[in-house]
TrEMBL record:
Organism this protein belongs to: Streptomyces triticagri
Lineage: Bacteria, Bacillati, Actinomycetota, Actinomycetes, Kitasatosporales
Keyword Metal-binding recorded: yes
Binding residues annotated for heme b, in chain numbering: 10, 17, 125, 174
Domain of life: Bacteria
Keywords (A to Z) from UniProt: Heme, Iron, Metal-binding
Protein name: Biliverdin-producing heme oxygenase
Length: 217
């Protein structure tokens, strides 16, 4: 395969990226049309997904395919828990529920983590590289819309304290993708799983959109 894998996976998911970015829920959220409750509900959904991603980190850290991607500076569960404590209060766990689409997404991540390292890489890429990129736009909007302190409580999920230079980190991440220890057929399967990961995200946005419709103004 001549095309670097990082290019392949980005190109293959480009269309779905646009779809996710322009989903009703994301557009309303970024357009400042939703209350902080919608943002908190979204943050709760992320917690389930990152639990699935990061609960597997230890078991996969020495795996030849997934291991190189497991990096402590990416870990988000702690930051999500800090955000949820700020957004929902100290007993944030008591009211926490996964939407059906979130439960399905987290289960698929866990399934890949258990049985298919290449699939885990697809989910890892879809979330973490996205958080390092568009996540920064979401943070900026959230700070302005709901008045969170810059890079402070409520938006810590988007702040990678241990990554001084996100652009360099992303470059390095793409090098890891290009060096992934799988054959061409498996690369195609990973790309397909990445598309599935995008669909799983879009499904969560759809359910969030149903829960937080804009009143017809
Ligand atoms: C409104 C929401 C979003 C915005 C504004 C946004 C914006 C962006 C931007 C500007 C980039 C390019 C960064 C660069 O070239 O370095 C990017 C990359 C990326 N985004 Fe998003 N994004 C959003 C939602 C999402 C979602 C929901 C996902 C998937 C869960 C996602 C996954 C990714 C990935 C994987 C990349 C890296 C592409 C690559 O370089 O390989 N994004 N995003």
């Amino acid at each position: 395969m001549d095309t670097p894998f990082s290019t392949l996976i980005r190109t293959a998911s480009h269309e779905q990226h646009t779809e996710a970015e322009t989903s009703t829920f994301m557009s309303d959220l970024l357009g400042g049309r939703l209350g902080v409750d919608a943002y908190a509900r979204y943050t709760e959904q992320l917690w389930f997904v990152y639990r699935a991603l990061e609960d597997a980190a230890d078991a996969l850290k020495d795996d030849p395919v997934a291991g190189p991607f497991v990096q402590p500076e990416l870990m988000r569960v702690g930051a999500l828990e800090d955000d949820l404590a700020h957004l929902r209060g100290a007993d944030w766990r008591s009211g926490l529920t996964a939407l059906p689409a979130t439960a399905a997404y987290a289960e698929r991540v866990a399934e890949c983590a258990r049985s298919w390292p290449g699939g885990y890489v697809a989910h890892h890429y879809t979330r973490y590289l996205g958080d390092l990129s568009g996540g920064q736009i979401i943070r900026d909007k959230a700070e302005k819309t709901w008045g969170f302190a810059r890079k402070g409580d409520g938006v810590r999920f988007y702040v990678f304290e241990s990554i001084g230079n996100p652009a360099a980190f992303k470059r390095h991440y793409r090098e890891l993708l290009d060096a992934i220890a799988v054959d061409d057929l498996e690369k195609q399967r990973v790309v397909d799983e990445c598309k599935r990961a995008f669909s799983l995200n879009t499904a969560v946005f759809r359910e969030l959109g149903d829960e937080f419709p804009l009143s017809a103004a």
